[in-house]
Amino acid sequence: MNPRYLSQFLSKSSAGVATHIFSAFGTIVALCGFVGCDSKPIGSKFVLSERTEELISPARKRVQDQLTEDFGTPQDLVAWLRFPVDYGMHKGTIKDVEATDQGSYKFAVDWTDADAESLRIRRGAGLMMTSGDYAGTNVKVNHYAPESGRIHIDAFMNPAPAVGDELTVVGGKLQAGRMLYMEHCVHCHGTSGDGNGPTAKYLNPKPRDYRLGKFKFTTTKPLEKIATSDLKRTVKLGIPGTYMPSFMLLKDDELSAIVEYVRWLAIRGEMEARIVNELHGDYSTADVRERVKGGETNDEIEEELQTLFDEDFSETVDDLASGLAADWLRADEEPSLILPNVPRVPDSLESQERGKKLYLSGDTKCVSCHGPTGRGDGSSTEEFWDIPGSQPIQKYAVRGLHDDWGNPIKPRDLTRGIYRGGRRPIDIFCRIYAGIKGTQMPAFGGKTGPKDLKDEDIWDIVNYVLSIPYETDRAIHEPLSIPPLEQTTAATE
Ligand code: HEC
Ligand code: HEC
Hints:
The protein is an alpha+beta fold. Among the domains are: 177-336, no CATH class; 349-477, Orthogonal Bundle (Cytochrome Bc1 Complex, Chain D, domain 2). It has 16 helices and eleven strands. The chain has helices at residues 3-6, 50-53, 57-71, 172-184, 186-189, 228-237, 252-279, 285-293, 298-311, 313-331, 349-360, 366-370, 425-434, 455-467, 473-477, 485-492; strands spanning 28-30, 72-73, 76-80, 89-99, 105-111, 126-129, 138-145, 150-153, 166-170, 401-402, 408-409. The strands form three sheets. The chain has a six-stranded antiparallel β-barrel. The longest helix is centred in the middle third of the chain and has 28 residues, at 252-279. The N and C termini lie far apart (97 Å). Bound molecules: heme C (HEC) (2 copies). Residues 184-185, 188-189, 199, 203, 205, 207-208, 215-217, 231, 234-235, 239, 242-245, 247, 258, 262, 420 line the site of one heme C. One heme C (HEC) is lined by residues 184-185, 188-189, 199, 203, 205, 207-208, 215-217, 231, 234-235, 239, 242-245, 247, 258, 262, 420.
């Protein structure tokens, strides 16, 4: 028996242990990521981001501690209920209590939302008492027997919890997601979701680093995060033309568990970045070096940092979490979704021609990246581009476009008919409407200027884009805007 679990009152609210802890927004619940909480497989740690590593050591330590408190470790995940992640929750009422020889308990439970047999509760899942004398107490599940609906807990309680006490088991889905992730995704996407698994160095494009909270292929409007359904679709179908495989063979509940784990890793990574943003600029090694040159002492700076941590840093972290939670919540709500306000314009030659005109026009500048024939060889691929956010502005060392992760990217070769975000007309519509997030491919939809694209225009372009692979060479090399050769010659004579 591990008495440590009993002392874990995991309410993050400073008011102490809330009675109805599950309705308290912001509760965190510890659970184990793996069968056997204490087994620590090699190399299985959440690593700090490069920017965190740049901080002076007390600042770095605080970031690390904060992340461990709020998200745990890979072996000991924490479900911070403030975020809109489906951790997996099952409510029930104790219908009888049996003491074990070791002094802990087995409960038979009446489950409110499922029948006992269908539940997959794993060892290490968090169990929270929600009523009775132990309301607010968080323990861990030792074993669950679906045949009998009996849960064996890993804690000693005296007196025993009473029949009729209510409980909630949290985190089964997140744990299941982690196990599947470790099996199918980690070698490319890495334990921390940093896109840096052992296989990553051999791949181009690189596996996605989830920690920016940005994803490329979404059905959500520009500036909105990815919807849960988008992630599910991508994982199910894979990303054509890249090493991202399709996971068609996984069951639906497995896919959705993996997706929740990916969302959780993304949120964790973004929390880290947002916390570090609060400290970078004053407390990186380079900042401190400058400050010392300016006359301050190391001791003064560290003392100031300590005061910051003692005074309102927790509140700052809380605010950052609220903002982030709201962003992820919004992505799954209808107003964030791209819903064309007209149905697809029928795919006629006329529509394709209108689309082609727009594609070649100076208003869209598709040509500057994708080239006049769609081969992805526009003039922008020859330019040196600015690094976004660099102060003073710096340029990438290599010519051509880059994504927000700093990887060189090419505009898609549209003559090949391979689309990473899917080949349905609506997929291409979404790509043009919202751009490709985290890349320089701009968003064209939802704007209202006189020269901006309307949804009809976007459909015309979709029809054109989908026709490009079937254009004959002759047609490709004679874009509409250029008159035939004889005429040109005649005109210049
Ligand atoms: C063999 C390597 C590999 C494996 C295994 C792999 N991925 Fe990927 N994944 C990639 C690559 C490469 C990309 C980037 C493709 C691109 O940028 O177009 C990617 C991109 C993604 C994206 C980003 C989609 C977007 O819209 O930005 C998600 C989400 C993702 N993978 C999830 C997963 C999950 C979940 C698993 C396991 C079930 C998995 N991947 C397994 C290589 C892999
Ligand atoms: C500033 C450069 C730029 C401009 C302008 C641009 N694109 Fe792109 N486009 C890209 C890049 C880069 C990618 C590949 C991004 C990635 O997957 O990393 C891309 C990808 C695409 C894709 C592939 C989508 C998929 O699922 O694989 C299509 C289709 C596309 N662009 C169409 C267009 C059209 C149509 C226009 C004009 C209305 C346009 N682009 C304007 C840079 C650009």
